[in-house]
Amino acid sequence: AQTVTQSQPEMSVQEAETVTLSCTYDTSENNYYLFWYKQPPSRQMILVIRQEAYKQQNATENRFSVNFQKAAKSFSLKISDSQLGDTAMYFCAFMKEYGGSQGNLIFGKGTKLSVKP
Amino acid sequence: DTGVSQDPRHKITKRGQNVTFRCDPISEHNRLYWYRQTLGQGPEFLTYFQNEAQLEKSRLLSDRFSAERPKGSFSTLEIQRTEQGDSAMYLCASSLFGGSSYEQYFGPGTRLTVT
């Protein structure tokens, strides 16, 4: 069974600074996808960034980038130039890929990020 | 694109009562997922549909839980004889299987409180 571990329950960062959220996962699968989702207070979950395991290049989306280390099964999220609107719960998630199909998401417990002015 | 909607947003019920939640996915999405999120935890998978077929159910989905997607559009999740341990946020998500993106789009959730 796959598991996702986020070892930082809470983090804080000053506005405009950079912060890195950690995520490790355990799987015996070779084909899978990894995601970071953001859940702002009392608002719905939205996708921040995704990474296909077969791609060696780390994904980037504007101020968000990942450091994907497949051998180490590590998938960290870096947020540059932090903004007050980045305050949210961040969830790392794993999705198995099999036979061209995708399954359900397996989430970590989340990291609560607070951006301070 | 109006996004994924869920109804009701909040539900308070007494232990032993039955409750039903509804999820309306993004219109062209053929996959629909149900997750449960308890306080301080990440969402946990319950079940998913492709069109009207229920393809997978988690062990978390006890006999008291049933989900349907009769016409391959909206879905309902029913909990019979609710227990206090059922108190949680129930999230629905949808995706387009076969498209270039496998992203799951989440609804706002239904928060269930069992008293």
How would you describe this protein?
The complex is a heterodimer of chains A (117) and B (115). Chain A is mainly β. Helices cover 0% and strands 57% of the residues of chain A. Chain A is built from no helices and twelve strands. Chain A has strands at 3-5, 10-14, 19-21, 24-26, 32-39, 46-52, 60-61, 64-69, 74-79, 88-98, 101-107, 111-116. In chain A, the strands form three sheets. In chain A, strands 2, 5, 6, 10, 11 and 12 form a six-stranded mixed β-sheet that branches. Chain A has a four-stranded antiparallel β-sheet with strand order 3-9-8-7, with no helix packed on it. In chain A, strands 1-4 form a two-stranded antiparallel ribbon. Chain A is globular and about 45 Å long. Chain A starts with a strand and ends with a strand. Chain B is an all-beta fold and 115 residues long. Chain B contains no helices and eleven strands. Chain B has strands at 5-7, 10-13, 19-24, 31-37, 44-50, 53-57, 65-68, 75-79, 88-95, 105-106, 110-114. In chain B, the strands form two sheets. In chain B, strands 2, 4, 5, 6, 9, 10 and 11 form a seven-stranded mixed β-sheet that branches. In chain B, strands 1-3-8-7 form a four-stranded antiparallel β-sheet, with no helix packed on it. In chain B, strand 7 (65-68) and strand 8 form a beta hairpin. Chain B is globular and about 45 Å long. The chains are: A mainly beta (117), B mainly beta (115). Chain A binds chain B through residues 4, 33, 37, 43-47, 50, 91, 93, 95, 101-110, and chain B through 4, 33, 35, 40-45, 48, 56, 58, 91, 93, 95, 97, 102-109.
